[in-house]
Amino acid sequence: MILKKFYIRQKLLIDSTLPNFIVPIKPIWAEALFDEKLANQSCLAGLESSLELALRRECVFYRKVKNSHGVHAPGRILWYITKDKRSYCNEQIQAIRACSRLDEIVVDKPKNIYKQFKRLGVYTYNDVLGCANDDKKANVMALKFSDTELFNTPIYLTDIQSMLGWKSSSSVLSPYKISNKDFFDLYNRGMS
User: Which domains does the chain have, with CATH numbers?
Assistant: First the structure.
């Protein structure tokens, strides 16, 4: 029965017509939005995830519109935790650590986007404004996501490069579209 359920889930994952993206996120935002394991490893005091936010099924992540590389919804996100200046005790950064369903993307001015989504995120208004380079008239992108699954096994950059055939100097600096097969392979690796 378990094997049958796995096969059905596997077929749904690989046969999906949803676009798939690897999206970079700083560790401080990942730990506040969805990654309790990363938050527990932080050697420095950081943002505290509220219990209310941690229990939410859906959240919002803000980013610059520039270099969004065609990310669109609905879709699926593999969250790549970027390198950061902060210290982490158990270096599980520079890795894909979670998967979410991308439900909606909204592009608007910082004030409007913050007002619309502040209950679903951890950014302050100044953080959102920072995504627009402190330009109140520039646009910001909000990625509304849900049903986040933390991976059992982080997929480190060297493994991502190998699995996707990237050059060893390649990194994840902005959203990167991947095929269904690549998504399935990465998802299975992370869930193993």
Answer: 2-191 (2.30.130.30)
